[in-house]
Amino acid sequence: MSSYSFEITMKFKNRGDMEKAEDWINDNIKGLWALEFLGMQEEMSVDTGLRSQVLNVLFKFGRREDFERFRNEYVMGKRPAAAATKKPKVPEKPKGFFARLFS
Q1: Model confidence pLDDT, tens digit, residues 71-88
Q2: What is the reported pTM?
Q3: Sign of torsion, CA 66 67 71 72?
Q4: Which residues 6+ apart lie within 8 Å of 42 measured at CB?
Q5: What are the distances in angstroms from CA 69 to CA 15, 46, 76, 88, 100?
Q6: Which DSSP string do the residues of 8-57 spell out, in sequence order?
Q7: Helix, strand, or coil here: 7?
Q8: Could you tell me the end-to-end alpha-carbon distance of the chain, in angstroms, rounded to an integer?
């Protein structure tokens, strides 16, 4: 029996959004994870006054690193710290004759 210690509940406007989250998890998470559909609810938009159906989903993770990565990168939209600090080194092009002449 697997144990999931880290959980996050999310609301999605449609099934396509939920499937995008599942695809992201499949591509980026290394440990155990599970998805539990909690149900649907009707919410009213403050701006338009229209009602819409919202899917409530519980994501469970077995590792803290996977949970934090999903929460930070997917839910909050933050970029990974390692990718933000690494910049590809561009080799410095040797100066040509005219560049040395005019510098």
Answers
A1: 999 988 888 766 555 566
A2: 0.66
A3: negative
A4: 51, 52, 53, 54
A5: 22, 31, 10, 23, 49
A6: EEEEESSHHHHHHHHHHHHHH--S-EEEEEEEEEEEE-TTT--EEEEEEE
A7: strand
A8: 70
